[in-house]
């Protein structure tokens, strides 16, 4: 266990915060620091064809050790951390044999990680927790994933009696700003399918995510002196308000769960002459997703019609852009790749928790680029903030799942291409 903790800590102490405002890849230069270390680690444990490209995407191979033909599988994680919270000067704290009580993260600032608020903590009584010092995030998202993949490959190399096919490993920058899959060369990776190790609690296995679009809606207006405005002024902010009121009641992120979709107004700026409204549209169901986009068009038309005479041209314009799609469509035709992961968990005594993601993963984009890619737990909790923590035992379990998936894929009869 100490080995896995040491490796994890060697990754989290390197600051790799990504930056959505940057146009480069990786988005921040500092991500190269960990990228170079990962390349060295992969070489050190004996991986082959270790490569890093000019955008810092890392790939490596563990060759097959069986004679028969086995599908090539991949394991993927990302090495950047979220810009939502400080990712520099991370000082991980180790809580051995967790007693189920409050954990004082920072005495000076009185920051406490408490099971009375974060009930999940109680799942890990008696285990070794790795936490922050209350001033940064931890970066278990997704350095736990990196740790698990490297450790599992090392285990397979050191235990050649475990039979497996060709395994490809991929580490990406900039996942947290939605670009992890953008420059991922699926052909070069050359796997039949892959798994992102980027989920949370032990047992999580995900192959359904939202269909996603973003809309930018611009309202025009006419500014006139308020004293002489009767019948002349058009206040774009009030039109935007009408637009929001036309959206269905109760379909917001805070009022929905499970498979329920939503509209989420996340940005609004305005003056009398112009108001810009930005919202996102999410739905697991493709048909309902399309209907939601149509509704935006419909409301736009309705308002334009109402102001056609007075304004003379379209008073509202809506620009809708698809962002990503539900990977289920790409994964269901090859459902055995989920079944193998589920079976692997069961064989090592983990209860699989299969549920739809209310968001997206790099795996959804990769699935649409031709690499079906469900998501598996990496073990951490409370991502993107100071309460982030990961039990070392959960990382160990993830290592076992990776090894078992490799083993099952190479077992004739289990895997199909
Ligand atoms: Zn992640």
TrEMBL record:
Cofactor: Zn(2+)
Peptidase M20 dimerisation domain ranges (all copies): 207-308
Positions contributing to Zn(2+) 1 binding: 78, 141, 198
EC numbers, comma separated: 3.4.11.4
Catalytic residues as annotated in Swiss-Prot or TrEMBL: 80, 175 (proton acceptor)
Function of the molecule: Cleaves the N-terminal amino acid of tripeptides.
Protein name: Peptidase T
Lineage: Bacteria, Pseudomonadati, Bacteroidota, Flavobacteriia, Flavobacteriales
